Amino acid sequence: MAKALPILSTVAPRRRAPTAEGALGNAPRAPRPEYVPAPLDQRPHADEIAIWLETLRTTSLLELGARAHALRLEKAPPHVSYIVDRNINYSNLCVTDCKFCAFYRRPKDAEAYVLSYEEIGAKIDEAKERGAVQILMQGGHNPYLPLDWYTGLLRYIKEHHPIHVHGFSASEIELISKVTKLPVDDVLLQLHEAGLDSMPGAGAEILVDGVRDIIAPKKIDASRWIEIHEAAHAVGMHTTATMMYGVGEVWEDRLEHMLKLKAAQSRSLARGGGHFTAFIAWSFQPLHTEMEHWNLALGTGMDYLRVTSIGRLLLDNFENVQVSYVTQGPKMAQLALTFGANDFGSLMIEENVVSAAGVDFIMPESEIRRLIEDAGFEPRRRYQDYSFVQDGDEGCPCCLARRQPA
């Protein structure tokens, strides 16, 4: 029997609108812990990290960008793609207490919520009326929702509000596995069969456990994040890979993160089936988080362009590099299109997580297209698999394939 929700008698929306202080209202203002980076010779991929550190040391930003842009033109179509979707955060109830998050609420918080199936369906219908071709489903780490709540939701969406579902981070999958006492592979297979089409790269942060132990000590470790994505690839789902930097890490950590992604991508491509479709990096936004007072050296615009360029050059088995205009702003995202990026990300009809940290650069589609055109590219709408939307389409290719009789 499923546990009763501690804050709600039924699965229902929040009882109170969120306050401006965000998750910081629930957390102590603890001092910044000391982080001592691991020596280079003790890291995985140490030789490759050393090579890329030398590249960073000896290559100007403009030369780095030029090299990344040349590779981008070689690997990706001469267009800039974007997707029309909606982020639906089905629950903000979370027991992971990540220090960088302003969105989550603890179980007894009056602002905690779980959306009903019907509310999620209404949000999907609103999004489809505006041209959305997918929804991104993410929530907090809610231990009171069993696997059949998720599979029931996916079946409800596919039957009543059919759309591509890009959902649930690796750490959410891990929690569902623990709650249900089923292996991750079984959980992923059941979710996929119920209607989960692809998986986002959320929760990667920095894939170095020394960093994760400081900013998210309750979250899965780096190896487990990679294992779950490779398991999703094995059941046929594509996923994305992300990196949130500017949390006190060093360049060695960023490079180790990317090299781990590259190795995982190589394994998945060799096996066939699913793989990482894109790399997406963004800088940490501290407002209203427990880390707000840690006096971190936050990422600058030039730092973002370096990360984007290195991402393109190092991750040479990734086809796509996506900008993050939601955190970087429209002009920096536009500039990144000549530093290795080929995708402008999502229209984001709704976004709640980054905006909880006081950053909100959501734009209409016409402005996204203008920014792409002003950068010298043709804007193209896409699906999650990076195929382009065509006039008269009845849905994304993977969703159409699902509807075909066996």
What does this entry show, briefly?
Helices cover 39% and strands 12% of the residues. It has helices at 46-58, 61-75, 117-129, 147-160, 170-180, 184-194, 209-215, 222-234, 251-271, 301-314, 325-328, 330-336, 365-374, 397-403; strands at 79-83, 85-89, 134-138, 164-167, 198-199, 238-245, 276-283, 320-322, 343-346, 378-381. It is globular and about 55 Å long.
Oligomer classification: single chain
Q: Give the helix proportion (percent range).
A: 25-40%
Largest sheet: 4 strands, parallel
Low-confidence runs (pLDDT<50, min 5 residues)?
A: 1-15, 351-360
**CATH fold annotation of the domain at 77-88 and 132-137 and 164-172 and 197-386 and 397-403:** TIM Barrel
Query: How many helices?
Result: 14
- Classify the beta-strand content into a percent band: 5-15%
CATH-level-4 superfamily name of the domain at 77-88 and 132-137 and 164-172 and 197-386 and 397-403: Aldolase class I
CATH architecture of the domain at 77-88 and 132-137 and 164-172 and 197-386 and 397-403: Alpha-Beta Barrel
Q: Evaluate the radius of gyration.
A: 20 Å
Total E-strand runs: 10
CATH C-level class of the domain at 77-88 and 132-137 and 164-172 and 197-386 and 397-403 is Alpha Beta
Verbal overview:
The chain has a domain at 77-88 and 132-137 and 164-172 and 197-386 and 397-403: Aldolase class I (TIM Barrel, Alpha-Beta Barrel), CATH 3.20.20. The protein has 406 residues and is an alpha/beta fold. Mean pLDDT is 87; it is low at 1-15 and 351-360. The longest helix has 21 residues, at 251-271. The protein contains 14 helices and ten strands. It is globular. Helix 3 links the parallel strand 2 (85-89) and strand 3.
